[in-house]
Amino acid sequence: MTANHTTLAACRALCTAWLRPVVRLSLGFGIKYQDFIAITKTLFIEEAMRESQQDKKLNISQLASKTGLQRKDLTERLMTPQQYQTLTERSWPALVFSQWRQSVMQDATRRTLPIVSHTGEASFADLARLVSKGTMHHRAILNELIRIKLVDEQDEQVTLLEEALVPSEDLQLLMSFAADNGHDHLQAIASNVLGVEPRFFEQAIFSGQLQPEDCVAAQHLLREQWQILQLRMLTLLTQAEQRAEAAQQPLERLRLGVYLYHTPTDDTSTSHLPAEDRSI
Predict the structure, then answer these.
(1) Distance of CA 15 to the CA centre of its chain
(2) Sign of the dihedral defined by the CA atoms of residues 146, 150, 151, 152, in that order
(3) CA-to-CA distance for 113 and 208, rounded, in angstroms?
(4) Dist CA 242 CA 240 (whole Å)
């Protein structure tokens, strides 16, 4: 895809807006400028390689021309490529929590389960065995959920404490979720801007003239509506996964989420526009 000067200026502005919170996060955790440049250099190479492989063209000269990097830098990094990896999708505790949360949304009495049942009733051990397909012992899954304070164990029973998997007590796991969620959200937007078809659903509502209590009210409404959508979507996806087990075709992964962010209007890192619907 080629671009004129106006489009390039718009792309630079877009990248600046996206990277500002990334730089804020980097500074907050002590990542230096040199480290950040090394990360972006690697990503430039990997994305150029991926695009070149799709076009069945791959050589150092083409990569150097596309990325603006020196051949020496390209050769060094081609020897040790670093690929982005999702960190939470294969987390059995996360998957067990999600399945349990869905069950509670359908039947609130399932919020507390016996760890092991000797009478045939539903138990945490059964849930863990079903979700992990027996690859991880239920005690190990339970210990991890207790560690990050998502469940409570008392008298051979375990109770779900949280409504959503936000592991605030485990910074590394929290960053893993943030990496996965942010990556896929930006991939959806980037694909739409690049004209990839079919387009991904990506919409937002913006208002620049709100009082703080109205922002809180908006977040409360969003949480209520998300619970309703989440239940319907989890039911649909669970049924789809069951059908996919017998499918004889390549499968795809899907991530769906919502977000809300508000900040004072004098925050110079954000735009100040009247309320509007936005879609890409």
Answers:
(1) 19
(2) positive
(3) 46
(4) 5
The continuous run of DSSP H or E covering 44 comes out as helix 33-54
**Cα–Cα distance, 195 to 191 (Å, whole number):** 6
89 and 180 Cβ atoms separated by less than 8 Å: yes
Whole-angstrom CA distances from 54 to 48, 49, 79 are 10, 9, 20
Residues 154-205: pLDDT tens digits? 999 999 987 666 666 678 777 888 888 899 999 999 999 999 999 999 999 9
In Å, how far are 41, 58, 81 from 75, measured between CA atoms? 12, 13, 10
Token reading at 131: 């979700």
Q: Tell me the two tokens of residue 95.
A: 């998957």
CA-to-CA separations, 205 to 9, 183, 197, 261, in angstroms, rounded:
25, 21, 23, 11
- Strands 276-279, 203-206: pairing is antiparallel
74 Cβ neighbours under 8 A, 6+ residues apart: 45, 60, 63, 64, 67
Our CA angle for 74, 76, 79, nearest 5°, is 105
Q: Which of 87, 144, 154 is nearest to 115 (CA)?
A: 154
Omega prior to 198 cis, within 30 of 0? yes
Q: What is the pTM of this model?
A: 0.75
Tens of pLDDT, residue by residue over 78-100, are 666 555 454 454 577 878 888 88
Place of tokens 């489009």: 7
Domains and CATH numbers, the chain: 92-160 (1.10.10), 202-280 (no CATH)
